[in-house]
C-alpha cells in the first residue's frame, strides 16, 4: 500500500565533499542545502546540514543525514525543524533507494505534538542533482 508523503526534502551539495576510502569501507560526507515542502511546513535546508554515505565490506550502502530546516509552519509561524535520517538499501550493490527512519525535533508549538509523537519512514533516492528525501507517516496518532 503506497501512502501519501508528508514531506519532501531536496538536498544539494553546497561545499567540499570528504571521502575516506579504507580497505573495508568508503565513507563520503557531503555538506548540503536545499528545499523542503509539506502540507504543514515549507522552507529551506540550512547549509549546516550534511549527508553521509557509507559502503561497507559487503557492499551494503547506508545513509545518515542531519538536516536543519528553517521555514513556516501551517500557522504561518517562523520555525525550525531538525530531521535525523538513518537507513540503508534493501540489496547490496549500487544504491537505488535507501529505506530510512527519520526522527524530528522542532521549536514549533503547532508541529511538536505531531512530529514528536508519531512514527515515520522514508525513502531517499540518489539523483543527478542531489538527494530526494520523501517521508511518510507510519500510523496516525496525533494529528495537526
Task: Describe this protein's structure.
This protein has one domain: Porin. It is globular, with a radius of gyration of 15 Å. With 144 residues, the protein is mainly β. The protein has an eight-stranded antiparallel beta barrel with strand order 1-3-4-5-6-7-8-9. It contains one helix and nine strands, in the order βββββββαββ. The longest helix is centred in the C-terminal third of the chain and has 6 residues, at 112-117. 4% of the residues lie in helices and 62% in strands.
Describe the structure concisely.
With 144 residues, the protein is mostly beta strands.
Oligomerization category of the chains in this entry: single chain
CATH architecture: Beta Barrel
Let me know the number of strands: 9
Compute the CA-based radius of gyration: 15 Å
- Arithmetic mean of pLDDT: 91
Main sheet overview: 8 strands, antiparallel, barrel
Shape: globular
Tally of alpha and pi helices: 1
Q: How many separate domains?
A: 1
What ranges have pLDDT less than 50 throughout 5 or more consecutive residues? none
Which bin fits the share of residues in helices? under 10%
Strand content: over 45%
Output the strand order for the largest sheet.
1-3-4-5-6-7-8-9
CATH topology: Porin
Which features does this protein show?
144 residues; globular; 62% strand; Porin; single chain
Topology, pairings included?
Blueprint: E1 7-13, E2 18-21, E3 26-38, E4 41-55, E5 61-73, E6 78-89, E7 97-106, H1 112-117, E8 120-127, E9 130-137
Antiparallel strand pairs: 1-3, 1-9, 2-3, 3-4, 4-5, 5-6, 6-7, 7-8, 8-9
